[in-house]
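Lab notebook, bench 4. The sequencing result for the construct came back, and we need a structural model before the next group meeting so we can plan mutations. Quick request posted to the team channel:

Model the 3D structure of this chain.
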Amino acid sequence: MERDSLRQFNLAVLVIRRASKSLVESDFRRIAPKGQHIDDWKGPGDILKVIPARDLSTLQQLGYYFLIFPNPAYARAYQARAVSLHRIARAHTPTSIESPITPPQSMLLEGEDVYNILQKYALCPPSQKISLRVLFPPYSPDVKRLLSQRGYSQIIRPDDKAGRAVLLWVYGYQPHSVLIREMINRDGQDRGLAWALANGEKSIEKVEGPLFPMEEPEGLGYEEDADSDRTRSVYPRWIISFTDENEARRFTRSWHRRPFPLRGERVAVGEPHPLVYAEVIW
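Done. Here's the predicted structure in token form:
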């Protein structure tokens, strides 16, 4: 339904780089220009959808985001707003004991309450330079696919799991899918409450993506992060579907960076214990 409703728009895409990988969609929406979210009225800067850029073979986040707008004017309005907020946050965020004190509430700068900006702005650390660029057609094949699907096929098909599913992998170990399910079932028994998985046997799906990385839109100058999983051995990943977002977030808090339970196996001397990594995907 969403895909059909967006066909009426002259879509515009704004790419934000150097952003935190831990952002959620509300982080982008809450800094939209004023006058938004009033009785479904779409004002300048209103976002239709936010899509984190992901590696097509692993679904791992790449550190930049695609913001989809109904037209180029809205994308430009949001771009100007984000640049202004970042500039204010950069000037008034303490970085040392010699920095100015945090501005008091109701202090205005460029017509904005500086204290409120520092509380709600989270797109990019103020100490870094933010990068925002509006893309124009013709789009790359990967961007075209994102726009037509409104996301990644592994997440939105056959049913949309965005927001209520977890991307999981084990760093330092390559378990079979059976062991992942056993881990989750055993954990439910230990805590006296089974995890609320959705879709029955299809609640745990191994990521089967193309064996090539997503091509970043031309001209963005993406630089590989030294800590990025794209530069390491690629471990199998699974999408685990839950009944709702709250359960997915509870599971992530419980299992992220937790030692993976090995069955009768020992870790070699001097080797770190395999760790579970988990993140809510949206």
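Confidence is low (pLDDT under 50) at residues 36-42, 219-232.
Will bring this to the meeting.
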